[in-house]
Amino acid sequence: MRVTEWRGGRRAWAPAALGLLALLTVSCDTGARRPASAARPTAPARVAAYDAGWRTGREILDSGGKGAAVREVVWGGCVRRSLTARPREVVDRDRGALVLGCRHGVAGEPHRRPARPLTRREPDPGLLADFRSWAARHGAKDSASRATRVVLVHLGDRDYDVELTGAYDAGDRAAGAADLADAFAEWWDGDDGETGVAWNLLLLTPDGERLLTRDL
After folding, report:
1. In the prediction, which pLDDT does 28 show?
2. Phi first, then psi: what are they for 132, rounded to 5°?
């Protein structure tokens, strides 16, 4: 199309376009048929996770009284609950926020959402090497050979879980995967580290799917 033809065409459709624009403006101004969800952005995962944890904590407080706070805060109840909390696809993105919300709720503290994500993953190849060395001396060399990665999952300032990736797929929930998880938990043997408390071992597939969990 030549430039002169385009300019002529523009004169022809300009009035119609202005009319359509005016119609759209009226529709937007009145909010016609616009769903409520379109008017606000999706909340960050930490907000949804914290809110879910806070509601759970309040329910525990209402049913169990102040004594429940000791179990949930001191003995890791809120951290354990974060492994099964729903919706999983939201909670798993920031389990630390759910733990904080649960603790605030069960302690009767105000609802205070975190301003930043609380979950932080830190690979620790040194722990994997130490585990393999221990396993070689304690008859678990074959199991340890299937471990490929160790990640510390910090859930706030002190609490953390340990993710152990193994060479098992989602169908290997039998003896092999269990032996690896049991050997790692035995090696860990309650060692809480220097800066916090480790609560759970999560055995993952190479694709990151959770196979098994163990208490630490």
Report:
1. 36
2. -65, -40
